[in-house]
């Protein structure tokens, strides 16, 4: 297909125009992610520590360059990963599974679950990495992956507390992904009869709910992480036997649990703010993704040289990946049919006055509406 043909096709492609508008809207999510990154970087500076003799003020002032140059950009990247994952799966329809068992089964054994888990895993893993490398709050650091035993041993023992630390982001990301997909928390909700949502009216509306969700989810994480680690601990050590041998550690012994209470407290602190940041990012994404069919005061199809055919292309696009653009097209049709705005009247007049031997505008619009009602 030539460049001219591709451009000509895009003129009538509602999905292409919708994507441009959506990308413009989602840039605001990046702005909020940047603000949230600064807040999270500061929050992790005040993480509980067992070292009560440390000079907190001095350490904070010393860490400002690292905070600005390393921590904030890294956390910003982790939050932006979540935004990109959400963009891949824009879902507005309810699940067709009739039982909770089927919903759980098909949610976990899906490509969507794999991509979402990978995104949340990268996000949580990088945040845990920033904390262990660039803070002195933990009782161990990145190089403390072994313990020198008082008894003579040919090879040092693995530090189980260090392994448990890195297990946490794996479980947090898995648990949160399960919660998101099984209970369809990523489905985009639209209010019937509402043509355009103003983000400023919704951004701070559900903050208490987000805080409550984060507390509840974190309680489950705190309770389940030690239990699941105990269940899979043997398999973790056996799975990484090659790495253990490369680092010349003792591969014959599964070390006992040596995780201290202060480490459990710190991990709870870490997981709560990671989950809260994900809740905020997902909420902000939902707000900007569901603004509606108007870009400013103009319907999306008005950017096309042939608005009617463009709108029809959006109504007819039944691709599951384009659920959001199709819903927006129907929302725009409702807007054109009922609104007295200048832009709506202009497009409505075009529909009324449209004449073509090949296409009957009214019949085409009625057919799409009838199919949707079925």
Automatic annotation (TrEMBL):
One term under GO cellular component: nuclear membrane
Topology of this chain in the membrane: Multi-pass membrane protein
GO biological process, alphabetically ordered: mRNA transport; nuclear pore organization; protein transport; spindle pole body localization
Keywords, ordered alphabetically: Membrane, mRNA transport, Nuclear pore complex, Nucleus, Protein transport, Translocation, Transmembrane, Transmembrane helix, Transport
Highest taxon above the source species: Eukaryota
Location of the protein in the cell: Nucleus membrane; Nucleus, Nuclear pore complex
GO molecular function: spindle pole body-nuclear membrane anchor activity
Extent of the signal sequence: none
InterPro entries with a match to the protein in the record: Nucleoporin_prot_Ndc1/Nup (IPR019049)
Transmembrane segments: 28-47, 59-82, 103-134, 164-183, 203-224, 230-249, 261-281
Family: Belongs to the NDC1 family.
Designated name of the protein: Nucleoporin protein Ndc1-Nup family protein
The organism of origin for this protein: Candida albicans
